[in-house]
Design goal:
With about 140 residues, the protein is an all-alpha fold. It contains five helices and no strands. It is elongated. The chain starts with 14 loop residues before the first helix and ends with a helix.
């Protein structure tokens, strides 16, 4: 069973961004599956790394649109992205150092952060992006 299931309430009505959100959800679900099946440390380490890398890529996409369309909440939104990357990077470091296992606490953090961020913060930019011609 997936930790996060894509649903219409997660859509920001921007195809490119929705596709990227689906990819992030897939990576979180892969990490969850690896944790549940007790896969080797290196599989979970790679998946956590892929999640961090893809989050950076995704946030860059959103931030480029925000700058392009002069989105008024850009600075606040960027701070949220930076805080998330810092947290995931710390998880990676702790995991590699053997200080942290991939736990349900971590998985719940990832699920809650992503779904809350999409449903709240990200949905706020939809009208601005669409007005700028992004579909």
């Amino acid at each position: 069973m997936s930790l996060i299931t894509w649903s219409d309430d997660l859509s920001v009505s921007i195809g490119e961004i929705d596709d990227q959100h689906k990819k992030l959800i897939g990576l979180i679900n892969n990490l969850h599956d690896a944790m549940k099946s007790g896969q080797a440390k290196n599989v979970m380490e790679k998946t956590l790394g892929d999640l961090a890398d893809y989050a950076v890529y995704h946030f860059k996409t959103e931030e480029q649109y925000m700058e392009k369309f002069h989105y008024p909440e850009y600075a606040t939104h960027k701070l949220a992205h930076t805080a998330f990357i810092k947290k995931v990077t710390q998880f990676q470091s702790d995991f590699k150092a053997g200080k942290l296992g991939i736990s349900m606490e971590l998985m719940n953090f990832l699920r809650e952060w992503l779904t809350t961020h999409i449903k709240g913060t990200d949905k706020n930019y939809s009208a601005t992006f669409r007005k700028g011609g992004v579909r």
